[in-house]
Amino acid sequence: MEHILNHASTTSIQNSPLSLEQQREDFKKKRFIAMPLAGTLVWALLGMSAPFVSELTITWMLYIGTGAIFYLGAGLSYLTGERFFAKSAVKNSFDRLFFVGMFMSLLVFAIALPVAAIDHTTVPLSIGILAGLMWMPLSWAIEHWVGYFHTIARTFGIVVAWYLFPEAQVEAISAVIVAVYIVSLITLERRFQTINSH
User: Fold this and answer.
1) What distance in Å separates the CA atoms of residue 11 and residue 33, rounded to the nearest whole number?
2) CA 79, CA 72: separation in Å to the nearest integer?
3) Helix extents (H) in 92-131
4) 174 touches 46 (CB < 8 A)
5) Treating both helix axes as pointing N-terminal to C-terminal, what angle do 55-80 and 34-49 enclose, rounded to 10 degrees?
6) Which element (helix H / strand E) includes 80?
7) CA-to-CA separations, 79 to 33, 45, 135, in angstroms, rounded
8) Which tens digit of pLDDT belongs to each residue from 78-112?
9) Which of 22, 57, 167, 176 has the fewest CB atoms within 10 Å around its CB?
10) Which helix (H) or strand (E) holds 79?
């Protein structure tokens, strides 16, 4: 009887949902490079295109391009092994936290849009900063400094570039964002390799 009770208890524990701490440990093992790769590609394209198109065109490209980062990242996730929407993926509360953080950042665009209607030159400034906010909760979730670095360096860099290069704001801001992305990508990949080498 005691053996049966012990077996039932063990089975119950095995079938119970993972604790938040266990889910966090699983979440921390992920690579996290698909979205930054997408962001790097999009902002590099925007920066290179800016000198050759009109202000109206680049404004629309900023809206469309940054909106496409998620979809491009989702596609790239199948190349990086992250596979965002794979049916076999285990549900994790920290994945939901990441997407909630991303949705929160998108909602702040409600401030950027009316400001842009008054002065369209604020678009690269506001979009560049707002789209980087989601890195903060990611940093907390994976207990690593990379997200804090990304948001803070990106925000300060964008503001400085916006003031220093009034005639080439999109190019300067794009360069800042791409540079921060590159540092973040290298850091995330090194972190991933270190975790998986243990």
Assistant:
1) 36
2) 11
3) 93-107, 109-118, 123-130
4) yes
5) 150
6) helix 55-80
7) 10, 20, 22
8) 999 988 877 766 778 888 888 888 888 878 888 88
9) 167
10) helix 55-80
